[in-house]
Design goal:
This protein is mainly alpha-helical and 178 residues long. The chain is built from 8 helices and 2 strands.
Length: 178
Amino acid sequence: MPKKNWDMGVDYESAYRRINNLLKRLEKANGPARLGYCYAQILLIQLRNGLRVSEAVRAWLDFYKTGSRELQVRVSKKRREDYRLAVVPGEVERADHCYELLDRDFDKLVDSVKVWSKRRLGINTHSLRYALITYLLRQGVNPSIVAKLTKHSKLDFILRYTQEKEAERVLKSEEFFG
C-alpha cells in the first residue's frame, strides 16, 4: 500500500493561472465568497515565493499593513530566528473587505486558508511550496540556490524529493519509452 503523501504534484504554471483566474472572479464577490478573494491572494503569494502557508499569511498581513511588495518574513520552521524575502505578485491588490481579516487570530486565519484551498482548489497548501521548487529546478536553477530561496536547511531533502518526482515523471513519459 503506498504511503500517503502531502505532495499532490501541483504544476506551478497551471496553479498560478488557476489562482489568478479565481482572483479575477472573486474580486467583486459578495457575502462569504468575498473572503475567498483574500485567501486566493495568500495562496498566490505562497506559490510565487515557495513559502509555507503561515509565512504566506505573514507576508500578506505585512503587505496589507505596509503596502510594501518586498517583505522580510520570519521562517516558520526554524528554531533560531531567521527571515526570508517574500515578493508580493502584481496581481495582488489591497481590497477593503480583506482588512477585516487583519484582526483575526493568526492560527485561525492560517487554518481558514488551508481549508479553503482544499475545498476550492482540491489541493493542500504545502503542495504549492513544492510546485515552485519543482518548477525552478526544471528551469535549471541550481538546487543550492533553490534551498536558500526556500530556506530548506538540508539540500539533500530537495534533491531527494525532486529526483524522486523526476524519476516518476520519466517512467510515466512516452517520450523515453515510445
